[in-house]
Predict the structure.
Amino acid sequence: MKPTRLIPWLAMPLVLVGMAACGSQEQPGGNENSTGGAGSAPAGETVEISYLHRLPDGAGMTPVADIVDRWNAEHPDIHVTSTKFDGDAQEMALRLETDIKADSGPCLAQLGYNEVPDMYVKGLVQDVSAEADKYKANYGGAYGQMIVNGETVGLPQDVGPLVYIYNATEFANLGIEVPTTLDEFKTAAATAAAAGKYIADFNADEAGYWLSGQTAAAGGVWYSSADNQWKVTVESDASKTVADFWQSMIDAKSVLTINRWDDAYNAALRDGSLIGNIAAAWEVAFILDVFDAQAATDTTPATEASPYQGQWRVAQIPDFGAGAKTGPDGGSGVAVMKGCAYPEQAMEFNNWFNTQVDDLLSQGLVTAALEAPTTQPEKWNTQYGGQDVLAELSTANKNLNPDFAYIPGFASVVPSVVESASAVVSGSGTVADVFAAGQTASVTALTDLGLPVTEG
């Protein structure tokens, strides 16, 4: 997974179930030190709130520090200090655990939705249900991604539904249309491959999130909870649909098999051999940057924009057999961490920050807040030929499978899935093996955490 799965925009309803972490009452994560609601600010004193994030703060973006400065100017009684963490998500999670145990953790922290159950089980987040409920109407179903075992631990920030990105000009030249079913997709892939073009790539290094999201698009989920236990159904009929879909095209050599974050992926885009792929919505913000003209530097001459610039479009993924449905790939929220003395004030800022949709759009986020941005980035207008990309992403957001959830320990599942997917690329494994590996690794992860689990 890309170290920071951050996203272009989106602020439409997505009805996602709460991540119900199942376990006995002896399990950690009960947040016994939490205030469980509003803390009282000291009379006449300014409340200090710290916020740890890993937003990119790149060129052309509204810096998080500037957004926070605006809050501080408007709210003199609640002063927020933001800190950017420059490592990856796992490194940040380790730092949070270490600091919170040392009573020096932040009040608020950005967490990937897959990280929320882990933090809950470890007792590192607070139950702020009463405060969160005040702001629930500002968010769609992503609100449920911040609920664990019936306790709301923060507010959602961004989402990442799977979409289809393709070169419309190349499709027209090949006489193919955007496929709306899996059979149409396989036929189009064969037609393109015969001309040395590929409408998709099997992203082995993204398999944990990418394939689970496609299972959700097929109407399935990898995990659910009932009767106070987790149910693991990584190997399901929906997963078989996904496995058969990719295996048939890999066998036919009608798709590429390049790791998403290898340089070869961008090279395939630049040389025009890769003309489409199923991708997370957050990729929309930067996937076509490889086509932009580069300004000259002291050591490098300027380059002209690629002839493919402006030819690409965003569409919905094909119907995996469950109708107009897609699945999640990434996204994060802002949680109130254990030890935060003023959860009421922290949640007030949390809601305000996550509803600054234009600022967050500039950071590359597909926002979870319902409020829409006022304008589409000019870069997108250029890269996508004037298409209303935001509208297409909105549709994908609405089509998210409402039943998808991660499990505690999912981070330990991903390496097994990726390893098995890499074996597919080398020819020593099948796509079905990827789901079998995910099933085994998921049961092991939950068992190692001491959580009750059953297999579907």
Notes: DSSP finds 15 helices and twelve strands in the chain.
